[in-house]
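CHAIN AND CONFORMATION:

***
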Amino acid sequence: MLNYKQLYYFWNVAKYGGVTRAAEQLHLTPQTISGQVSELAQSLGVDLFYQSGRRLKLTSAGELAFTHAEEIFQTGKSLEARLKNNQHHTDLLLRVGVSNVVPKSIAFSLLSPALQLQEPVRLNCYEDKLESLFAELAVHNLDLVIADRPLPADTGVKGYNHLLGECALAFYGTPELVESVRVDFPRSLNDAPLLMPGPDSALMPALERWFADMGISPYIKAEFDDSGLMKAFGQEGVGLFPAPEAISEQAARQHGVSIAGTTSDISCRYYAITPERRLKHPALEAISQSAKSNVFSTVASRA
């Protein structure tokens, strides 16, 4: 029978990248950790790690074991949270990190299906830069990160990318600004006042390449790390701003802006990044299904 204590030690060694760091986290000696992991490998009849310089790396068998260990201990953590925090009710806890460059209306549309399940869900939302959210995901303080880009392979964080959907990029503005650039779009963006997302956004480099390819030189008036602040400036007529076509209805209703033009040369993609390969949490399944069938399907059908 599988020794779950040994599996837990192995999981921590894989997660923290070595025996010494795992021992520090668990407040145990490296010898204890190393011995228990060796016994696990022996009982399974496989090598779980191999030495690469000063680091331990997972073998193919180790990768498989780690994936299953992730699911086992994530399930255990969810059970513990439910028993401790929900003694008098049965709400499922869903801890979500949202990148600060993701439009608030997109985040709401993606996450709201989790609150409409028959089984009540308590949603804990955190907004931050992706680097901070990935760090929280790595230590399982988050169940999900909503981002505008997949998890980079070189972050050292174990996670899985699930594409929720994509749509074309649109340029929004007040009626006066929209009217001034609507004819001969996108060439009309040349010298037009523009608000840009900051360098943390996946849109920034894509926009710069597109402008260069199209021979367009807009008048960039400001850059914003926070998409909501960019829209607030756009609402006041400071400049046009790029945002997903999928938010057109919300943008008109909340900010009084409309679309000046769109381009399919740039895609706005949104991902759910989870510590598990499979979306086992009922709320995660609802988010994924709704994103594909509702949030982005209307835009896709207009294309």
